[in-house]
Amino acid sequence: MADVLRNSIYGIVSAFHDEMLTSTKAGVLEKDWVTKSKSLFKTYELLVQKLHHFLDFRAS
């Protein structure tokens, strides 16, 4: 199950990579791509950190 989720998130990051990088450079990645509503899985800060990891992985 975790593998499916990881691959799905990677697919989303791959599809929107350029837009996400633009948001990162503008300093609004968190605002544009992660909601502040209560998450069922992790804290807001951890979700932002994981999103940055996916972007870093995609860039390499």
TrEMBL record:
It comes from the Eukaryota. This is Uncharacterized protein. It comes from Populus trichocarpa (Western balsam poplar).
